[in-house]
Amino acid sequence: MVDQECTGRLLALQERLRAAACRGNFPRGFHLTLVFLGETGEGLVPAIRDRIAALPCSGAFTLHFSRAGCFRRRGKELWYIGAAPGSPGMERLLELRAKLVEGLEELAPPRSASLGVPAGAGGLSFDRRPLKAHITLGRELRLNREVPPFPVQVEVPIRRISLMQSEHRDGRRVYTERFGRDV
């Protein structure tokens, strides 16, 4: 999860989107996803915890977010801020991700060559696509006007890696840490 100082900056960026949206979801818990796991059986949680605990961590680092963008799907938009490739901290983030993916591969069945997700049932399913380091500002947005370009300069300290559980409660996504360790 993002610290309070960064959260204030992200809320200000989020307000620009809220002003242009006729509807959408605006998350309260800002975070960066290192690897998306999807639906995961409770029996796999201890093994995932072990993979996170085994990561080579050497202290906190900072990731620089310098661009805004959106993913479009089925008439809805997910707006985010992104860390540019080569930005400070990105190499360290990619190293952590590579080590985590390597450990998670041991828990996954063979993958489908076309989709990068496991073929068949059983084991762990996770997103193997290249990381696009981003923090979501709004999802399922329908805009009633164009969003003017806005500058993004946010330094986010990366201090912790967490296994998070995502649930829908009262129409909102709620994230709960199941396990975490400092980087």
Provide the fold topology.
Blueprint: H1 4-20, E1 21-25, H2 45-53, E2 61-65, E3 67-73, E4 76-82, H3 90-105, E5 134-143, E6 154-158, E7 160-169, E8 172-182
Antiparallel strand pairs: 1-5, 2-6, 3-4, 4-5, 7-8
Mind explaining what this structure looks like?
By secondary structure, the chain is of the alpha+beta class. It has a single domain (4-182), classed as Cyclic phosphodiesterase (Cyclic Phosphodiesterase, Chain: A). It is built from 3 helices and 8 strands, in the order H-E-H-E-E-E-H-E-E-E-E. The protein has helices spanning 4-20, 45-53, 90-105; strands at 21-25, 61-65, 67-73, 76-82, 134-143, 154-158, 160-169, 172-182. The strands form 3 sheets. A 4-stranded antiparallel beta sheet has the order 1-5-4-3, with helices on one face. It has a two-stranded antiparallel sheet with strand order 2-6. The chain has a two-stranded antiparallel sheet with strand order 7-8. The radius of gyration is 17 Å and the shape is globular. 16% of the residues are buried. Residues 117-121 have low confidence and may be disordered.
